[in-house]
Amino acid sequence: MRRIEKAERIRKMLDELYPTVPIPLDHTDPFTLLVAVLLSAQCTDKRVNTVTPALFELGPTPLAMASADVDDIREIIRPCGLSPAKSKNISNLSKLLLENHDGVVPQSFEDLEALPGVGHKTASVVMAQAFGVPAFPVDTHIHRLASRWGLSAARNVDQTERDLKSLFPKESWNKLHLQIIFFGREYCPARGHSLADCPICGWAATKKRIREEAKR
What we know:
Radius of gyration: 19 Å
CATH topology of the largest domain: Endonuclease III, domain 1
């Protein structure tokens, strides 16, 4: 089966399994989403959602967050890991939003990626989920599933993103990246996974991937 045909079959299956997909990170506006996505690096969405209520009470806006003590931010977000770096980035990006963007989260990849702690994946999530701009955020989980399903042989998430964008309709990207994440959590974990029993891996996994999984 050609990749493009496989991709279309996968897209239809995901639409059936997840006709609607909620945004996993709790937020109220582009700023709180930006901060939540930054916190989610090497941390689960569930844990981020337990931390952000107190954080957003302290700093619900760029002005309030920029005025908060970095040590107070760090103490609140400690459960998310990497709190020294993340707290500084949250404080500094809030100040830059005030200085360069009138306290408003910019609606461009270039401006977002210029903010402290904001990489391409974080910018993609904000552009897609806050502003509805077509984007395909690829994290390690989507990278893993794209490989299992034979949609990409890329060694890094950047190339995987390019491969997936070439296979799926642009209008499906924003919903699809969330569908893949939800599918991975429910059916396709990194470990203890049976390719044969998976609704997608059972028919989509490449022969190479089947051999690799069998050796584990």
